[in-house]
Amino acid sequence: MTSITCYGGVAEIGGNKFLVEDLGTRVFLDFGMDFSRRRQFYSVFSRPKSCSDLIEFGVLPRMSGVYDYDNSSCDIDAVVLSHAHMDHFQCISLLKRDIEIYASEQTIQIIQAVMDTRREGIENSLSGLKFKTFYNGRPFKVGDIEIIPFEVDHSIPSAHSFILHTSKGPVAYSGDFRLHGRGVRLTRNFIAHAHKEKPLVLLCEGTNISEGDRNTERDVLKEASEIVGGSNNLVFAYFSAVDIDRLRSFYRVAEDTNRRLAISCKQAYVLGKLKNQKGIGSFLTKDILCVFKRKKRHYEKWERAVHSNFECVEAVDMKNEQNRWIKISTMYDLDEMLEIRPNPGSVFLFSASEPFNEEMEEDFSRLRNWLGHFGVPLYNVHSSGHMMPIDIRSAVSQMNPRKLIPIHTQSQGFYKTFLHDVVSEIVEPQLGHTYSLD
Ligand SMILES: [Zn+2]
Question: How remote is the CA of residue 85 from the centroid of ligand 1, in Å?
Fold first, then answer.
Protein backbone atom coordinates (compact mmCIF):
# COMPACT_ATOMS: atom_id res chain seq x y z
CA MET A 1 0.00 0.00 0.00
CA THR A 2 1.16 3.56 -0.73
CA SER A 3 -0.16 6.18 1.65
CA ILE A 4 0.28 9.47 3.48
CA THR A 5 -0.60 9.80 7.17
CA CYS A 6 -0.93 13.30 8.59
CA TYR A 7 0.50 13.30 12.12
CA GLY A 8 0.92 17.08 12.38
CA GLY A 9 0.63 20.30 10.40
CA VAL A 10 -3.12 19.69 10.12
CA ALA A 11 -5.46 22.70 10.53
CA GLU A 12 -2.52 24.32 12.29
CA ILE A 13 0.44 26.49 11.39
CA GLY A 14 3.38 24.18 12.07
CA GLY A 15 4.02 20.86 13.75
CA ASN A 16 4.46 19.25 10.31
CA LYS A 17 4.80 15.45 10.43
CA PHE A 18 3.69 13.58 7.30
CA LEU A 19 4.44 9.89 7.05
CA VAL A 20 4.78 8.60 3.48
CA GLU A 21 4.69 4.79 3.15
CA ASP A 22 5.48 2.87 0.00
CA LEU A 23 6.33 -0.84 -0.46
CA GLY A 24 7.59 -1.12 3.12
CA THR A 25 9.56 2.14 3.11
CA ARG A 26 8.46 4.66 5.75
CA VAL A 27 9.63 8.28 5.53
CA PHE A 28 8.54 11.26 7.57
CA LEU A 29 8.43 14.64 5.84
CA ASP A 30 9.44 16.97 8.68
CA PHE A 31 9.10 16.19 12.36
CA GLY A 32 8.26 19.54 13.93
CA MET A 33 6.92 20.71 17.24
CA ASP A 34 3.18 21.31 17.50
CA PHE A 35 3.46 24.52 19.53
CA SER A 36 -0.27 25.13 19.81
CA ARG A 37 -0.80 21.72 21.44
CA ARG A 38 2.34 22.00 23.60
CA ARG A 39 1.23 25.45 24.80
CA GLN A 40 -1.93 23.91 26.27
CA PHE A 41 0.16 21.95 28.80
CA TYR A 42 3.54 23.68 29.05
CA SER A 43 4.82 27.25 28.97
CA VAL A 44 7.93 28.39 27.11
CA PHE A 45 9.85 27.92 30.36
CA SER A 46 8.35 24.64 31.66
CA ARG A 47 9.58 21.37 30.21
CA PRO A 48 8.15 17.89 29.85
CA LYS A 49 10.03 15.23 31.82
CA SER A 50 9.65 12.51 29.23
CA CYS A 51 8.65 11.76 25.70
CA SER A 52 5.68 9.74 26.96
CA ASP A 53 4.32 12.88 28.70
CA LEU A 54 4.22 14.60 25.30
CA ILE A 55 2.50 11.57 23.80
CA GLU A 56 -0.06 11.51 26.64
CA PHE A 57 -1.00 15.14 25.94
CA GLY A 58 -1.19 14.59 22.18
CA VAL A 59 1.81 16.82 21.42
CA LEU A 60 3.42 13.80 19.76
CA PRO A 61 1.62 11.02 17.87
CA ARG A 62 1.31 7.67 19.64
CA MET A 63 3.48 5.32 17.52
CA SER A 64 5.77 2.44 18.31
CA GLY A 65 9.27 1.99 16.93
CA VAL A 66 9.76 5.74 16.49
CA TYR A 67 10.86 7.30 19.78
CA ASP A 68 14.19 6.93 21.52
CA TYR A 69 12.78 5.82 24.88
CA ASP A 70 10.87 2.91 23.37
CA ASN A 71 12.71 -0.44 23.18
CA SER A 72 10.84 -1.87 20.21
CA SER A 73 12.73 -2.13 16.95
CA CYS A 74 12.93 0.89 14.66
CA ASP A 75 9.95 1.26 12.36
CA ILE A 76 10.91 4.37 10.36
CA ASP A 77 13.57 4.55 7.64
CA ALA A 78 14.21 8.28 7.57
CA VAL A 79 13.02 11.77 8.36
CA VAL A 80 13.50 14.35 5.62
CA LEU A 81 13.61 17.93 6.85
CA SER A 82 12.48 20.84 4.69
CA HIS A 83 14.13 23.59 6.78
CA ALA A 84 15.37 24.63 10.21
CA HIS A 85 12.27 26.24 11.72
CA MET A 86 11.36 24.57 15.02
CA ASP A 87 7.81 23.79 13.90
CA HIS A 88 9.39 21.60 11.19
CA PHE A 89 12.27 19.91 13.00
CA GLN A 90 12.32 20.18 16.80
CA CYS A 91 10.84 16.76 17.64
CA ILE A 92 13.75 14.94 15.94
CA SER A 93 15.27 15.32 19.41
CA LEU A 94 12.94 12.53 20.60
CA LEU A 95 13.52 10.07 17.77
CA LYS A 96 15.32 6.74 17.83
CA ARG A 97 18.97 7.25 17.04
CA ASP A 98 19.06 4.76 14.17
CA ILE A 99 16.62 6.79 12.05
CA GLU A 100 18.49 8.70 9.34
CA ILE A 101 17.75 12.42 9.21
CA TYR A 102 18.18 14.02 5.80
CA ALA A 103 18.62 17.78 5.49
CA SER A 104 20.68 20.30 3.55
CA GLU A 105 24.08 21.28 4.91
CA GLN A 106 22.90 24.76 5.95
CA THR A 107 19.76 23.36 7.58
CA ILE A 108 21.91 21.03 9.70
CA GLN A 109 24.19 23.94 10.68
CA ILE A 110 21.25 26.15 11.69
CA ILE A 111 19.61 23.31 13.63
CA GLN A 112 22.86 22.75 15.54
CA ALA A 113 23.19 26.48 16.27
CA VAL A 114 19.58 26.82 17.43
CA MET A 115 19.74 23.73 19.66
CA ASP A 116 23.07 24.82 21.21
CA THR A 117 21.42 28.05 22.35
CA ARG A 118 18.52 26.27 24.06
CA ARG A 119 18.40 24.84 27.56
CA GLU A 120 19.26 21.18 27.82
CA GLY A 121 16.28 18.88 27.89
CA ILE A 122 14.61 16.02 26.06
CA GLU A 123 13.21 18.42 23.45
CA ASN A 124 16.57 19.98 22.60
CA SER A 125 19.05 17.12 22.25
CA LEU A 126 20.77 16.25 18.99
CA SER A 127 23.27 13.88 20.52
CA GLY A 128 23.57 10.60 18.65
CA LEU A 129 21.31 11.66 15.77
CA LYS A 130 22.39 10.42 12.33
CA PHE A 131 22.32 13.39 9.95
CA LYS A 132 22.72 12.87 6.22
CA THR A 133 23.12 15.69 3.72
CA PHE A 134 21.11 16.19 0.55
CA TYR A 135 21.76 18.73 -2.22
CA ASN A 136 19.44 20.93 -4.23
CA GLY A 137 18.16 19.12 -7.33
CA ARG A 138 20.09 15.91 -6.63
CA PRO A 139 17.83 12.87 -6.13
CA PHE A 140 18.51 10.48 -3.25
CA LYS A 141 16.87 7.22 -2.25
CA VAL A 142 15.36 6.06 1.01
CA GLY A 143 14.39 2.42 0.57
CA ASP A 144 12.07 2.29 -2.44
CA ILE A 145 11.30 6.01 -2.52
CA GLU A 146 13.37 8.41 -4.62
CA ILE A 147 13.31 11.96 -3.26
CA ILE A 148 14.29 15.13 -5.14
CA PRO A 149 14.91 18.22 -3.01
CA PHE A 150 14.35 21.67 -4.54
CA GLU A 151 15.58 24.74 -2.74
CA VAL A 152 12.78 27.32 -2.39
CA ASP A 153 12.43 30.81 -1.04
CA HIS A 154 11.39 31.17 2.63
CA SER A 155 12.33 33.26 5.67
CA ILE A 156 15.32 31.08 6.50
CA PRO A 157 18.26 29.97 4.33
CA SER A 158 18.10 26.71 2.45
CA ALA A 159 14.41 25.79 2.72
CA HIS A 160 13.39 22.92 0.44
CA SER A 161 10.31 21.49 -1.20
CA PHE A 162 10.33 17.86 -2.32
CA ILE A 163 9.08 15.53 -5.01
CA LEU A 164 8.88 11.89 -3.92
CA HIS A 165 8.70 9.13 -6.49
CA THR A 166 6.53 6.38 -5.03
CA SER A 167 5.49 3.19 -6.82
CA LYS A 168 2.05 4.77 -7.42
CA GLY A 169 3.34 8.11 -8.74
CA PRO A 170 4.89 11.42 -7.63
CA VAL A 171 4.01 13.16 -4.38
CA ALA A 172 4.94 16.85 -4.03
CA TYR A 173 5.48 18.55 -0.66
CA SER A 174 5.80 22.33 -0.43
CA GLY A 175 7.36 22.63 3.04
CA ASP A 176 7.15 26.40 3.60
CA PHE A 177 7.63 28.56 0.54
CA ARG A 178 6.89 31.94 -1.03
CA LEU A 179 7.01 33.81 -4.31
CA HIS A 180 7.92 37.30 -3.11
CA GLY A 181 11.36 37.06 -1.44
CA ARG A 182 14.88 37.21 -2.81
CA GLY A 183 14.80 33.61 -4.05
CA VAL A 184 11.67 33.71 -6.25
CA ARG A 185 13.44 31.91 -9.10
CA LEU A 186 14.11 28.94 -6.78
CA THR A 187 10.43 28.55 -5.94
CA ARG A 188 9.55 28.91 -9.63
CA ASN A 189 12.01 26.15 -10.46
CA PHE A 190 10.27 23.79 -8.00
CA ILE A 191 6.85 24.67 -9.42
CA ALA A 192 8.09 24.04 -12.99
CA HIS A 193 9.49 20.63 -12.01
CA ALA A 194 6.33 19.68 -10.14
CA HIS A 195 4.32 20.65 -13.24
CA LYS A 196 6.40 18.25 -15.38
CA GLU A 197 6.02 15.44 -12.87
CA LYS A 198 2.18 15.60 -12.82
CA PRO A 199 1.88 14.90 -9.07
CA LEU A 200 -0.71 12.49 -7.78
CA VAL A 201 -0.84 14.51 -4.58
CA LEU A 202 0.39 17.93 -3.55
CA LEU A 203 0.73 18.75 0.14
CA CYS A 204 0.64 22.54 0.00
CA GLU A 205 1.13 25.03 2.82
CA GLY A 206 -1.44 27.78 3.26
CA THR A 207 -0.30 29.93 6.17
CA ASN A 208 -1.58 33.02 4.32
CA ILE A 209 -4.33 31.42 2.21
CA SER A 210 -7.09 33.66 3.58
CA GLU A 211 -5.20 36.94 4.03
CA GLY A 212 -2.41 38.52 2.02
CA ASP A 213 -0.40 41.64 1.48
CA ARG A 214 2.02 42.96 -1.12
CA ASN A 215 5.11 43.52 1.01
CA THR A 216 8.36 42.17 -0.39
CA GLU A 217 11.82 42.06 1.15
CA ARG A 218 12.69 45.03 -1.05
CA ASP A 219 9.81 46.99 0.56
CA VAL A 220 11.19 46.11 3.99
CA LEU A 221 14.56 47.53 3.00
CA LYS A 222 13.04 50.71 1.54
CA GLU A 223 10.61 51.37 4.39
CA ALA A 224 13.12 50.58 7.12
CA SER A 225 15.71 52.88 5.49
CA GLU A 226 13.21 55.74 5.39
CA ILE A 227 12.14 55.27 9.00
CA VAL A 228 15.68 54.88 10.31
CA GLY A 229 16.82 57.85 8.20
CA GLY A 230 14.09 59.94 9.83
CA SER A 231 14.99 59.02 13.40
CA ASN A 232 17.73 61.01 15.07
CA ASN A 233 18.07 58.66 18.00
CA LEU A 234 18.19 54.98 18.86
CA VAL A 235 16.58 52.46 16.52
CA PHE A 236 15.47 49.10 17.91
CA ALA A 237 14.50 46.32 15.52
CA TYR A 238 13.01 42.90 16.08
CA PHE A 239 13.10 39.96 13.65
CA SER A 240 13.77 36.23 13.66
CA ALA A 241 17.33 35.20 14.58
CA VAL A 242 17.44 32.73 11.67
CA ASP A 243 16.09 35.06 8.97
CA ILE A 244 19.32 35.88 7.19
CA ASP A 245 17.53 37.74 4.35
CA ARG A 246 16.05 40.11 6.92
CA LEU A 247 19.44 40.50 8.56
CA ARG A 248 20.83 41.35 5.13
CA SER A 249 18.12 44.03 4.72
CA PHE A 250 18.89 45.60 8.10
CA TYR A 251 22.60 45.41 7.38
CA ARG A 252 21.94 47.48 4.24
CA VAL A 253 19.77 49.89 6.24
CA ALA A 254 22.65 50.39 8.69
CA GLU A 255 25.06 50.99 5.80
CA ASP A 256 22.69 53.46 4.10
CA THR A 257 21.98 55.41 7.29
CA ASN A 258 25.52 55.47 8.61
CA ARG A 259 24.81 53.40 11.71
CA ARG A 260 26.20 50.24 13.20
CA LEU A 261 24.09 47.12 13.62
CA ALA A 262 24.23 45.46 17.05
CA ILE A 263 22.84 41.95 16.63
CA SER A 264 21.85 39.51 19.39
CA CYS A 265 24.21 36.86 20.68
CA LYS A 266 22.00 34.14 19.18
CA GLN A 267 22.05 35.78 15.73
CA ALA A 268 25.82 35.98 15.92
CA TYR A 269 26.05 32.31 16.90
CA VAL A 270 23.92 31.28 13.90
CA LEU A 271 26.02 33.48 11.59
CA GLY A 272 29.19 31.97 13.01
CA LYS A 273 27.96 28.45 12.13
CA LEU A 274 27.14 29.58 8.57
CA LYS A 275 30.33 31.58 8.07
CA ASN A 276 31.62 29.38 5.24
CA GLN A 277 28.37 29.65 3.27
CA LYS A 278 28.19 31.91 0.24
CA GLY A 279 27.32 35.53 1.07
CA ILE A 280 27.74 35.20 4.84
CA GLY A 281 31.45 36.02 5.05
CA SER A 282 30.80 39.58 3.75
CA PHE A 283 28.78 40.34 6.90
CA LEU A 284 31.66 39.38 9.07
CA THR A 285 34.45 41.28 7.34
CA LYS A 286 33.03 44.84 7.48
CA ASP A 287 32.89 46.90 10.66
CA ILE A 288 29.15 47.55 10.59
CA LEU A 289 28.20 44.47 12.52
CA CYS A 290 28.82 43.87 16.23
CA VAL A 291 27.15 41.92 19.00
CA PHE A 292 25.15 43.33 21.88
CA LYS A 293 26.50 41.83 25.11
CA ARG A 294 23.87 41.53 27.78
CA LYS A 295 24.89 42.00 31.39
CA LYS A 296 24.61 38.60 33.07
CA ARG A 297 26.22 36.83 35.98
CA HIS A 298 26.84 33.66 34.01
CA TYR A 299 27.37 33.18 30.27
CA GLU A 300 26.74 29.85 28.55
CA LYS A 301 29.49 28.20 26.53
CA TRP A 302 27.99 29.30 23.18
CA GLU A 303 27.70 32.89 24.45
CA ARG A 304 31.35 32.92 25.52
CA ALA A 305 32.29 31.65 22.03
CA VAL A 306 30.42 34.59 20.45
CA HIS A 307 32.04 37.09 22.84
CA SER A 308 35.49 35.92 21.85
CA ASN A 309 34.78 35.81 18.08
CA PHE A 310 32.83 39.06 17.56
CA GLU A 311 33.29 42.68 18.54
CA CYS A 312 30.87 43.29 21.43
CA VAL A 313 29.09 46.41 22.65
CA GLU A 314 27.15 47.03 25.85
CA ALA A 315 24.26 49.27 26.88
CA VAL A 316 26.67 51.88 28.18
CA ASP A 317 28.30 52.17 24.72
CA MET A 318 24.92 53.04 23.18
CA LYS A 319 23.58 55.32 25.86
CA ASN A 320 25.55 58.42 24.90
CA GLU A 321 25.63 57.96 21.11
CA GLN A 322 22.14 56.72 20.39
CA ASN A 323 21.94 57.95 16.80
CA ARG A 324 24.83 55.67 15.79
CA TRP A 325 23.03 52.38 16.40
CA ILE A 326 20.42 49.93 15.24
CA LYS A 327 19.98 47.53 18.13
CA ILE A 328 18.35 44.19 17.44
CA SER A 329 16.00 43.41 20.30
CA THR A 330 14.03 40.36 21.27
CA MET A 331 10.99 40.00 23.48
CA TYR A 332 13.25 38.78 26.25
CA ASP A 333 15.86 41.52 26.51
CA LEU A 334 13.59 44.54 26.81
CA ASP A 335 15.09 45.27 30.23
CA GLU A 336 18.13 46.70 28.42
CA MET A 337 15.97 49.77 27.79
CA LEU A 338 16.22 50.61 31.49
CA GLU A 339 19.94 51.01 31.14
CA ILE A 340 20.03 52.62 27.71
CA ARG A 341 17.14 55.04 28.38
CA PRO A 342 16.16 55.72 24.75
CA ASN A 343 16.11 59.45 23.94
CA PRO A 344 13.06 61.16 22.41
CA GLY A 345 12.91 60.37 18.71
CA SER A 346 13.90 56.71 19.15
CA VAL A 347 11.82 54.13 17.25
CA PHE A 348 11.12 50.37 17.33
CA LEU A 349 10.83 48.45 14.03
CA PHE A 350 8.76 45.30 14.44
CA SER A 351 9.77 43.08 11.55
CA ALA A 352 7.96 39.79 12.22
CA SER A 353 4.49 38.34 11.72
CA GLU A 354 1.71 39.72 13.87
CA PRO A 355 0.83 37.63 16.93
CA PHE A 356 -1.44 34.71 16.04
CA ASN A 357 -1.78 33.02 19.43
CA GLU A 358 -2.23 33.98 23.08
CA GLU A 359 1.43 33.59 24.00
CA MET A 360 2.53 35.88 21.16
CA GLU A 361 -0.20 38.36 22.05
CA GLU A 362 1.05 38.47 25.64
CA ASP A 363 4.64 39.04 24.44
CA PHE A 364 3.42 41.74 22.08
CA SER A 365 1.37 43.55 24.71
CA ARG A 366 4.39 43.43 27.06
CA LEU A 367 6.49 45.00 24.29
CA ARG A 368 3.86 47.72 23.88
CA ASN A 369 3.98 48.44 27.61
CA TRP A 370 7.76 48.90 27.52
CA LEU A 371 7.58 51.09 24.44
CA GLY A 372 4.71 53.09 25.95
CA HIS A 373 6.71 53.61 29.14
CA PHE A 374 9.70 55.02 27.26
CA GLY A 375 7.69 56.85 24.56
CA VAL A 376 9.11 54.82 21.67
CA PRO A 377 6.70 54.40 18.71
CA LEU A 378 6.40 51.02 16.98
CA TYR A 379 6.50 50.62 13.20
CA ASN A 380 5.44 47.39 11.49
CA VAL A 381 7.89 46.64 8.67
CA HIS A 382 7.54 43.07 7.50
CA SER A 383 7.33 40.74 4.56
CA SER A 384 5.91 37.27 5.24
CA GLY A 385 7.92 34.06 4.83
CA HIS A 386 4.88 32.37 3.31
CA MET A 387 3.17 32.45 -0.04
CA MET A 388 0.33 34.92 -0.66
CA PRO A 389 -3.22 33.77 -1.61
CA ILE A 390 -3.04 34.61 -5.33
CA ASP A 391 0.44 33.06 -5.58
CA ILE A 392 -0.82 29.83 -3.95
CA ARG A 393 -3.61 29.74 -6.50
CA SER A 394 -1.29 30.18 -9.47
CA ALA A 395 1.32 27.75 -8.04
CA VAL A 396 -1.32 25.03 -7.47
CA SER A 397 -2.78 25.66 -10.89
CA GLN A 398 0.64 25.27 -12.54
CA MET A 399 1.59 22.17 -10.56
CA ASN A 400 -1.79 20.73 -11.48
CA PRO A 401 -1.91 17.87 -8.93
CA ARG A 402 -4.63 15.26 -9.14
CA LYS A 403 -5.28 15.76 -5.41
CA LEU A 404 -4.45 18.67 -3.09
CA ILE A 405 -4.01 18.29 0.68
CA PRO A 406 -3.94 21.70 2.44
CA ILE A 407 -1.39 21.78 5.28
CA HIS A 408 0.22 24.27 7.68
CA THR A 409 -2.87 26.50 7.73
CA GLN A 410 -5.62 27.55 10.11
CA SER A 411 -7.97 28.04 7.15
CA GLN A 412 -7.97 24.68 5.34
CA GLY A 413 -11.67 25.06 4.45
CA PHE A 414 -10.73 28.13 2.44
CA TYR A 415 -9.03 26.00 -0.24
CA LYS A 416 -12.34 24.45 -1.28
CA THR A 417 -13.79 27.82 -2.23
CA PHE A 418 -10.71 29.71 -3.39
CA LEU A 419 -9.12 26.87 -5.38
CA HIS A 420 -11.84 24.45 -6.41
CA ASP A 421 -11.70 25.58 -10.06
CA VAL A 422 -7.94 24.95 -10.40
CA VAL A 423 -7.65 21.51 -8.82
CA SER A 424 -10.01 18.59 -9.25
CA GLU A 425 -9.91 17.15 -5.73
CA ILE A 426 -9.18 18.85 -2.40
CA VAL A 427 -8.88 16.62 0.65
CA GLU A 428 -9.08 18.42 3.98
CA PRO A 429 -6.81 16.31 6.16
CA GLN A 430 -7.64 15.06 9.62
CA LEU A 431 -5.05 14.48 12.30
CA GLY A 432 -3.85 10.86 12.39
CA HIS A 433 -5.76 9.84 9.24
CA THR A 434 -4.15 7.79 6.49
CA TYR A 435 -4.82 8.68 2.85
CA SER A 436 -4.23 5.90 0.37
CA LEU A 437 -2.65 6.58 -3.04
CA ASP A 438 -3.71 3.18 -4.40
ZN1 LIG B 1 9.13 27.84 8.13
Answer: 5
